[in-house]
Amino acid sequence: MSDYKIETKCIQSGYEPGNGEPRVLPIYQSTTFKYSTSEQMGRLFDLEDSGYFYTRLQNPTNDAVAAKICDLEGGVAAMLTSSGQAASFYSIMNICEAGDHIVCASAIYGGTYNLYAHTIRKMGVEATFVDPDCSEEELNAAFRENTKAVFGESIANPALVVLDFEKFAKAAHTHGVPFVVDNTFATPINCRPFEWGADIVLHSTTKYMDGHASCVGGAIVDSGNFDWEAYGEKFAGLTTPDETYHGIVYTQKFGKGAYITKATAQLMRDLGSIQSPQNAFLLNMGLETLHLRMPRHCGNALAMAKYLKSHDKVAWVNYPGLEGDPYYELGKKYMPGGTCGVLTFGLKGGRDASVRMMDSLKMVAIVTHVADARSCVLHPASHTHRQMNDKELLEAGVQPDLIRFSVGLENIDDIIADVEQALMQV
Ligand SMILES: *Cc1c(COP(=O)(O)O)cnc(C)c1O
Q1: Is 127 helix (H, G, I), strand (E, B) or coil?
Q2: Ligand 1, residues 92, 206, 215: which to mutate, most atoms within 8 A of Cβ?
Q3: C or N terminus of the chain, fewer CB within 10 Å?
Q4: DSSP-based three-state secondary structure for 121
Q5: pTM of the predicted model, to two decimals?
Q6: What distance in angstroms lies between residue 204's CA and the mean position of ligand 1's atoms?
Q7: Residue 36: HSE in the Cβ half-sphere, 13 Å Cα cutoff
Q8: Residue with the nearest Cα to atom 6 of ligand 1?
Q9: Could you tell me which residues come within 8 angstroms of residue 2 by beta carbon, excluding any fewer than 6 positions away?
């Protein structure tokens, strides 16, 4: 990790050209890499040497961008994935197998909820969902003998619950398991979960990191802090021989790089959710301005939250950056520089009024996206979360009339003017 400030890391980390090499990170648009002898390539397959041989496992463009994200989070190793979903899947399946269990905050992204509640269950891994605001006792009661990880989102999409990192980290570590955090909404500009006890951080880079809604992608970063060998029996995949690589033991051979090396060497090898180098290049362009964009997103969202709060047709507004919000204090503690550019609100006319208002917007678009330069809205109950029943919706912190508003980087006066004219139609 470099000693540069985070703004500098956004621009400089991950790639340092040698003499006469391209100043800008090149796109290694190649599936494969050439070697002079069969022996040299063989050693790569045995993980005896490090080097590139096939882009499904590793690619220099991807690695440079992963290294930048690693540096931004303050981790020791990182990898890119084809999507945030793949990152969420790998982060858990790298340490779980059939018969295992995870503890998960219930206020999370709908796609992650489906993945953990249903899809990995079919693979034999069960999740217990806990209210993120539960007491320490309730949280501890969710653990079992076979629990392997604790998961939560730093700012939940779309519930906008700020996770009490210290409470979750303490429970995870008391039970000898890692604390995994999805830091998509806060980004490392606003929050660095490793500083609050998280062991693994993941991202949907599709959102603020890319920032322009151009590429779906994900990333996983390891803090290097979790001592897998201290709980060697629980994490046998990391601490006992891998017969698919002639019996190497990841923790012994790769030390603090064990978790990411295993995720690359096994999961990426076998499941293949690699990010394309072209997308990694575009992601890198987004990362260069992340430190400029996040404060503007937060400033615009706060102005919009205040505007909506004072509007007589608006029933409620949630924004953790707004004084009086239930998560304002936690936000100030864990993200003192700002939270995110997403807020939610409902109208006094209920679900129908919310839909009518959205349909009346002219500039702000209805899209299945969030956290990019263009302001957009979405109605989770009819869109992202429509697979959930009402009970599941409320457990995930999603009211049926909730509009999710991703406040973009346009001039705030124009965004408010569009909302104002739409509210007049209600
Ligand atoms: C969008 C999102 C995901 C899923 O990421 P994709 O890149 O769409 O696969 C995961 N977590 C959060 C918080 C998200 O907003």
Answers
A1: strand
A2: 206
A3: N
A4: helix
A5: 0.97
A6: 5
A7: 0
A8: 84
A9: 8, 9, 12, 13, 71
